[in-house]
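User: I'm writing a short report section on ligand binding and want a predicted complex to refer to. Could you take this sequence and flavin-adenine dinucleotide and write out the structure as tokens? A short remark afterwards would be nice.
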Amino acid sequence: VSVDAVVIAGASLAGASAAAKLRSEGFGGSIVVLGAEARPPYERPPLSKDYLQGRQPFDRSLVKPPEFYPENKIDLRLGEPATSLDSSARVVRTAAGEHRYDALLIATGARNRRLPVPGADLTGVLDLRTVENSDAIREAAAGGGRAVVVGLGFIGAEVTASLRGLGVEVTAIEPFPAPLYRVLGPEVSAVLADIHRDHGVSLILEDSVEAFEGDHRVERVITKAGRHVDCDFAVVGVGVEPEVGWLEGSGIAIDNGILVDEYCRTNIDGVFAAGDLANHDHPVFERRIRVEHWQNAIRQAEAAAGNILGRNEPYADVHWFWSDQYDANIQYAGYHTSWDELVIRGSIEDRKFVAFYLSGERMLAAVSVNWPRDVRRAATLIGAKAPVDPEALRDPAVDLRKLVPTS
Ligand SMILES: Cc1cc2nc3c(=O)[nH]c(=O)nc-3n(C[C@H](O)[C@H](O)[C@H](O)COP(=O)(O)OP(=O)(O)OC[C@H]3O[C@@H](n4cnc5c(N)ncnc54)[C@H](O)[C@@H]3O)c2cc1C
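Assistant: Sure. The structure tokens for the complex follow:
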């Protein structure tokens, strides 16, 4: 099919990046971008960091300046969410009408998981995905006070750090023995726990929320172990789920997000997916991977745009992301769920190190605390699938770039 009309569902980082890439690659047909939110596409990382702390204006988060869309003949339909897909008619429906496509990119991202406990809908039980959510947290924090943060994944950990920056007392509740324990393992996650403790956070570990209580407004959190933690507000960060409800009955294959092949193609002809909701067949890791990373949302969407235009190029980027908590910069490259050897370069005690996760002779992932350079370099090694020598990894004098096979 020659592609004259592209519809993009989802007007955020992935959707806007794909639209921009189509134009920069010379696509002259129509581009319609459907968005559920009222604001033009913006980046979410500042929402838990500088924007939340009132140190960065919203405009700095825009993916493109507002005039970019009309100037590039991108029909940005804000506040017009896709409601269904009829793939045999090649039509996306919204409350306002129908949009016919030759190629469709699904980029509707993810929504926050809710805690299925009593009191979760009390006023003052907040979560964070949108700029409005971030504003609500900042407003709740305005008077200082006490907050409970539920879940110490990256979002919960960043919100905790930002709330401390705003002078709020924070108790954080996490079911595992340390923040990000399952992903990073005991050695590295213990460092993160200590960073929070050093900043005055009260950590409740290996416990979870049983209920929120209060008279209309949340006043305390009750944990499974029977603790009662008084608070003025709570922020829940317990993960996301792919935003795929509108695709019910469409025939699009879904399993932990939308299944796409290495070219970002779904099981249905002419339909692609990218960003937080895409469960992608990754050529480097030889398995399906769905990640929730800023860089992936851009790069995967650009790859999908290229493939919409018939480029036929697999998307094989090694995933990378960062997190800022207090003055600690954390970076991660690769993908791992289990490992058989952890190699440390640098010093855990000084909180300046990079940890490499190995399986057999292969490096799957690297995470750094205040040592970003070697994570970027490790990404190249991971992408090369090269066998690695733990001794060389451990030695800070060895330039990781020299370990990449040249052939
Ligand atoms: C607070 C916060 C901090 C973060 N910090 C970092 C970080 O430090 N580093 C990092 O790498 N990543 C970070 N991320 C992750 C990063 O923001 C995401 O990976 C990225 O936003 C994914 O982009 P996306 O376009 O795939 O999805 P989303 O950003 O989820 O966008 C999807 C869009 O589609 C819209 N939508 C939903 N349903 C429909 C529909 N039916 N029709 C039309 N539109 C619809 C949604 O409203 C939304 O605007 C952070 C995320 C959050 C929330």
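A remark for your report: The first strand starts at residue 5 and ends at 9. Residues 9-15, 34-37, 44-45, 47-48, 81-82, 107-110, 128-129, 155, 243, 246, 275-276, 292-295, 297, 321-323 surround flavin-adenine dinucleotide (CB under 6 Å).
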